[in-house]
Amino acid sequence: MIRTKIFVRLELLPAILLAITAATIFTWTTLGQTSSQTAIAGNTKTDSFPVTFTDIAGAAGISTPTIYGGIERKRYIIETNGCGVAFFDFDNDGWLDVLILSGTRLELSPKEKPTNRLYRNNRNGTFTDVTDKAGLRRTGWASSVCVGDYDNDGNEDLFLTYWGQNVLYHNNGNGSFSDLTEKLGLSTQGTRWGSGCTFVDYDRDGNLDLFVANYLKFDTAKVPEPGKGNNCYWKGIPVNCGPKGLPTDTNLLYHNRGDGTFADVSEASGVAKVQGRYSMTATTTDFNNDGWPDIYVACDSTSSTLYRNNRDGTFTDVALEAGCAYNEDGQAQAGMGLATGDYNNDGLIDIFKTHFSEDLPVLYKNSGKGYFDDASRSAGFDHTPYVEWGTGLVDFDNDGWSDILIVTGNVYPEVEKILKEYPHRGPRLVYQNSRNGRFKEVTAQMGAGTLSPKSSRGCAFGDFDNDGDIDVLVMNMNEPPLLLRNEYINSRVGGRNNWLTLKLEGTKSNRSAIGARVVLRAGGLVQVQEVTSQSSYYSHNDRRLHFGLGSTEKADSIEIRWPNGERETILNVAANQIVTIKEGEQGNRGTREQGNRGTGEQGNRGTGED
């Protein structure tokens, strides 16, 4: 993990905040303030950001702890990275279901039976555990999940990465999944540590291909014990070794043949040429807007990777020349999680990436000229004592501007006992978009759902209750998950902002529409989003695209560029509904009036029937 040389420590924490956070010390710098100002006091006017989160996981039936390594001590790095989560609709009922990945322990007690868990949305604010019925029980060191309909049968399939062997679960369409990893040609030789993954139709043939990142080569028999090597200390305290000093691995690309099998094209495509990286979260983004999907990979303690699609079946790493390999000082950072989105509404997809303690997250602003500018400091971000993981560029208050949430948690539980300023468990950090290129930290006012200390890793974003605001699912190490219900819609009686959610379905393009780009114009704003297969940290967000519209009551136009490059435009779409758009439905007109547009669903929490 990378440690930077600069750390800003803040004092004068209000006593009331200490009580709320159960004596957890928050010492990050409020965005836009000087280091001499009180850290979390940031924004005390509660109605300036009208959003709070309530953790309803226990009440909703999501209460099983996620087992991942030791609790008080982490002997090896395999115990530290944790895993992802997913919001996805596995049964096609229009309501998001929940997948929680799981790890295991080096020494597992007979009473512990850790497994990934699938929870079916009951459409009334509760969930039912259907793991065994779905055939998804599996114990191992899971890392990440990516979701996509690889065979275009209308059902979302799962690919999970592991230390050991990855697995592809085919969605059978009847509530169950089948492990088809070997049959599809996706098994690997020996033990590898799969990290990020993403489905991507890189050749635009209508079939989803698969990119798989590998973190490093790990063998408990060859890794030193804590404090027994050069990279086995932190702040003078013996800790688990790595990643520096451990051998790196290469990434994989599988081409979908269209006949139910995949071919390993890692070498031929140029993906495997990228060496010497500790690859983590992966996502697709068309950074240069040429209509062909590129792949960005956050890398730990090494430069990050931007695979540019050369439009001929090959990729070239252009992260260095594109300005998104290092920070503005030319230093590699410990890349963990990442999010893509248009934070400044200039019509270009930007990248936000999280890092290790004593560093600042990086915001790469897309210049529109094939490269990024490091806008981290100009946007107001500064160093933090927290290790940052999952993140999202999400419009929580539906004002048309993307806000940011980051989950935190240290990798060294031993350190907190000696250095109290580095807590093992931290808050969920929330930043409001100030609509001027800057963000304002508003964590203090967000409620117990964000302030309760947890050691978190993956998180996913989606509207699980279909009420029109974005909720958050969070994985916690050796504790139950958080299901943070956004109370914006629920608590606002009048004057609330409007919204529109789009579910895209490919016909000629891949059925999941992964790689599609939407440009929505409403109320003088231009918003851009893309459909992705993995984001945050090792996680999968609701693939429906959610747009805040502010006070505007309709979208003036919705322009869709489908993954195969074809375009369609829809005009005058009323707000506050979930709309399904199938590729080609608009015919040659390219427009369709409200009320004659296919599938529309009015969002309504807790009223659906089973």
Mean pLDDT: 90
Number of strands: 38
Describe the sheet with the most strands.
Answer: 8 strands, antiparallel
Shape: globular
How many H/I helices? 7
Point out poorly predicted stretches: 1-47, 587-610
- Classification by helices and strands: mainly beta
Work out the helicity level: under 10%
Taking all Cα atoms into account, the compactness measure Rg is 22 Å
The end-to-end span amounts to 47 Å
Beta-strand content bin: 25-35%
Summarize the structure.
By secondary structure, this protein is mainly beta. The strands form nine sheets. Strands 6, 7, 8, 9, 10, 11, 14 and 15 form an eight-stranded antiparallel sheet that branches. It has a four-stranded antiparallel sheet with strand order 1-30-29-28. It has a four-stranded antiparallel sheet with strand order 2-3-4-5.
